[in-house]
Amino acid sequence: MNPIKQTIEAAISDLRQNKKMVSQIYEEWKSIAQTPDYHRKIRELDTAMEKARAERKNIAVRLFRDYVDSQGNPVVGNPNEAFYDPNPTPMFNIGDFYRGPGIPRTIPAITGAATIVARRGDLTLRRIDKFIKQLRKKSRTRKDLRENNLQLTESKLKQLIKEMMENDHGYTNKR
Q: pTM for this one?
């Protein structure tokens, strides 16, 4: 498989794991009752969402070559969080992913500021889903990511026919 496509597939898999965590945090946030320790629980859930965002940042670092912070410094990821890659090979620009009219393309949508609070879990989950769909589409439509399945299929078919003829019918090619 194409190494760039492998990076994309790994990112999709990692995003699915992250999505599960965000979903659990959001469900817990929806079920919290107004109790004396309500605000402490909300802070804990927001801290968990910040951790999930840090993980998504690590994923974004692997994908985007122009990912910078608000001061214009390249975002390098956090080695203390999941999905960190010390030697990323980014292949996309942030502008390659459409976020909507009038929305600046300076950071990936999956790492936006709104994604660090538990009460915005629904928005975060939608952003992750949309980003996964965009990654899938990119991996299908970009020429450098498509694999030449016709050649692989044809050569594999020839090999299978030859093996079948040799094994099942005692045929050997003596040319």
A: 0.77
